């Protein structure tokens, strides 16, 4: 369900579960983590590009699958992915179209460059499910968007567009949907052609707060796990599954 293609130093990871709007299940998380870990060790991979297709990036977690995996410890596929993507040392790009919900948005906070099609719907609906932020979004989103806007999206869970995301700095450029994947690939190839060590050292300097990010991920997961078992969350999840 995660298609991999390596060309000109760019490893493209394509989410291919379009019948479920690229909802990420445990198998996909494992595949993404393994691909990123292998990319770290593979000198032929200089850049990674994460994408869905021209219609959809990701509708977030496959909740039923997510809930079946038990406690949120380091062996949990979602937790492993969060730490892996947060610590990834090589350039990570994203091409976003259609939906980017939950992890579909928070993963973008760990990308170095993000390109999006017009009219995307991004959303962080954690409180609406009785949950709290994850993937260090409580730290990273205020840094990018400012506190009040981050509170709007993390407390109220309001959706926002790719144009709004570009205005506050989460998205680098809004690109026509028909050109999106090719445009993102061209930017990835441009990065891959640059001197490797210079790019890696530059990213490392930009990511100097990495230890703090990992601490925030751990703190969020602790609260997330507690909230997941709360009555309020269970009621919200039951209502969600009933609607579906």
UniProtKB/TrEMBL annotation:
Keywords: Isomerase, Peroxisome
Superkingdom classification of source: Bacteria
InterPro entries reported in the protein's UniProt record: ClpP/crotonase-like_dom_sf, ECH/Chromodomain_protein, Enoyl-CoA_hydra/iso
Molecular function as annotated in GO: delta(3)-delta(2)-enoyl-CoA isomerase activity
Lineage summary: Bacteria, Pseudomonadati, Pseudomonadota, Gammaproteobacteria, Alteromonadales
Protein's name in the database: Enoyl-CoA hydratase/isomerase
Cross-referenced SUPFAM superfamilies: ClpP/crotonase (SSF52096)
Subcellular location: Peroxisome
Major localization listed first in the record, in broad terms: other
């Amino acid at each position: 369900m995660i298609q991999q293609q390596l060309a000109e130093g760019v490893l493209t990871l394509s989410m291919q579960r379009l019948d479920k709007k690229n909802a990420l299940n445990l198998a996909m998380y494992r595949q993404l983590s393994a691909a990123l870990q292998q990319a770290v060790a593979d000198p032929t991979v200089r850049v990674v590009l994460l994408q869905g297709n021209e219609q959809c990036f990701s509708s977030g977690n496959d909740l039923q699958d997510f809930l079946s995996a038990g406690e949120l410890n380091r062996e949990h596929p979602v937790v492993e992915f969060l730490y892996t993507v947060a610590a990834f040392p090589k350039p990570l790009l994203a091409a976003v179209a259609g939906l980017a919900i939950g992890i579909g948005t928070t993963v973008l906070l760990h990308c170095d460059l993000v390109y999006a099609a017009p009219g995307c719907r991004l959303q962080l609906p954690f409180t609406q499910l009785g949950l709290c932020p994850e993937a260090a979004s409580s730290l990273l989103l205020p840094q990018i968007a400012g506190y009040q806007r981050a509170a709007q999206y993390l407390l109220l869970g309001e959706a926002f567009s790719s144009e709004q995301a570009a205005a506050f700095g989460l998205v680098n450029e809004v690109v026509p949907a028909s050109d999106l994947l090719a445009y993102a690939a061209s930017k990835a190839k441009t990065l891959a052609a640059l001197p490797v060590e210079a790019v890696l050292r530059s990213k490392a300097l930009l990511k100097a707060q990495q230890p703090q990010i990992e601490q925030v991920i751990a703190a969020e997961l602790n609260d997330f796990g507690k909230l997941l078992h709360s009555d309020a969350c269970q009621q919200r999840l039951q209502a969600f599954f009933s609607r579906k």
